[in-house]
Design brief:
Two copies of one chain form a homodimer. The longest helix of chain A has 14 residues. With 223 residues, the first copy, chain A, is α/β, with parallel strands linked by helices. Chain A contains nine helices and twelve strands. Chains A and B meet through α3 and α4 of A and α4 and β6 of B. Chain A binds a DNA duplex (30 and 30 nucleotides) through α7 and α9.
DNA sequence: TTTAATTGTGACAGCTTTGTGAAATTTCAG
DNA sequence: CTGAAATTTCACAAAGCTGTCACAATTAAA
């Protein structure tokens, strides 16, 4: 689910937006001013920022300018009616939408949805992921993460895991695995599979539990 | 006196704006659609453009994009209420102001005056850029900057980087890269990719970290 | 309980893949 | 046509993956 950074100095506003956003299933984070927002963006990635213009410490448009120096994150600006409208245009900030206070949370959410739908996160939808609890296989990027951390699998480990997962719940003999993962022209020992299963298990940490040994038969992935 | 280009398919609108503008002492010129506007801008310089969004042949926002490729002229957009508002923000055009139809000519003139007053600080032409920390790719100008300094990439390096970035997070085999970056008719060695990756990495300096080797597979851009 | 079969595991030599510098070739502007 | 820049190939170095083996641990059968 997309992560939203809500930036406003009024706690009330943050709460309202947060509540509505979380109701829609978004993750949220808050910042009280522009400085804080910049800091938070340095440390983590958000999918969209909802930012007030008038704030202490660092105003909204300066913050956007700063954040956009390093990251391309869509922004929806909030501001009091009229007052800051010219400034927004005047500075030609790359802002994706603009909502005037007081706003209806429903409208804001609709705009957030719209911005997320078009924009940069088009790549997000292209990425194919398979998840089992904290084990996540990003097929598109050929990357496996365990509880959010990237696991460094070797090519064979990845291929083996991918084949097992694709055939989850199905008993797979060593012969079958060799044929499918190694290739029909592999001339080696059956036990090679065992070694790679061992390595794979060690790479998967606690999620080794998904790889089940079928004595006298082979292995299977069971989630 | 400043010269205004008025672009709208309705003669009525053009006339009204023209009359008021000339009363204020501005010179005016007219175009019926985006295409005409682009043509006229190629031939002469204007100080400001007042442009409708919805027009036959070439819509306003495409016209602005085209014109801004070569000239930095401030723009005030016109459009029917609400309808095109999203589009404006959606495409992040470098527009200096925005007036909703039906508008009062007096208000439009006031905005024209205001935009002209802010100086031709429209030096910030809207250029399409992609950023990852200090790595900035100016797509419009085919230029890459690293921490603000222009990196001297060769054409292949740029093409390769651009393709990787467009497909960030996606595992790309050498074959795929050859096909997409070099062209389907390239009959060379796979390892050519490696050499160009090497060169690209060296050009990117510390941001070489974004280019990830996928052993046994290929490469990907990961930001 | 013993025994035999099967699977788990650590170590490592050899192999495959990737990184890299340099040379050969091609492209292109002048 | 010439020379500089870009591209491609090549060979070797470096990195890191694989497959095998020996032995330990586990399981099932007798």
């Amino acid at each position: 689910m997309p992560k939203i950074l809500i930036v406003d100095d009024e706690k009330m506003i943050r709460n309202v937006v947060k509540e509505y956003a979380e109701f829609e299933g978004y993750e949220t984070a808050e910042a009280e001013n522009g400085m804080e927002a910049v800091e938070m963006c340095r440390k983590q990635d958000f999918d969209i920022i909802v930012m007030d213009i008038m704030m202490p410490r660092l105003d909204g448009y300066s913050a956007v300018k700063e954040i956009h120096k390093t990251k391309q994150i869509p922004v929806i600006m909030l501001s009091a009616r009229g007052e800051e409208y010219d400034k927004l245009f005047g500075f030609e900030i790359g802002v994706d939408d603009y909502v005037v206070k007081p706003f209806s949370p429903k409208e804001l959410l609709a705009r957030i949805k719209a911005v997320l739908k078009r924009g940069t996160s088009a790549d997000e939808t292209k990425i194919e992921k398979i998840k089992f609890e904290g084990l996540e296989i990003n097929v598109t990027g050929r990357e496996v993460t365990i509880d959010g951390k990237v696991a460094q699998l070797t090519p064979k480990e990845y291929d083996l895991l991918f084949y097992l997962v694709r055939n989850k719940g199905i008993a797979l003999s060593r012969e079958k695995l060799l044929e499918e993962v190694w290739g029909y022209d592999f001339y080696g020992d059956d036990r090679t599979v065992d070694t790679h299963i061992k390595m794979l298990r060690s790479s998967l940490g606690e999620y080794r539990k998904f790889i089940v040994t079928l004595r006298g038969m082979g292995y299977k992935f069971e989630a």
